[in-house]
Amino acid sequence: MLRYRGRAINAADVDAIRRLIAEHPKAKRRALSILLCEAWSWRQANGALRDAVCRGLLLALHRAGHITLPPPQCRTVPRWRPPQRVHVRPVPREGNLGDLGPIEIRQVRRTPEEALVDSLIDEHHYLGYARPVGEHLKYLVTASGSPLACFCWTSAPRHLGPRDRHIGWSAEARKANVRYVAYQSRFLILPWIHVPLLASHLLGRMARQLSGDWEQQYAHRIYFTETFVDPARFRGTCYKAANWTYLGMTTGRGKDAPTKRPNRPPKDVYGYPLVKDFRQRLGQMPPP
Question: In this structure, are 33 and 120 located in the same domain?
Answer without folding.
Answer: no
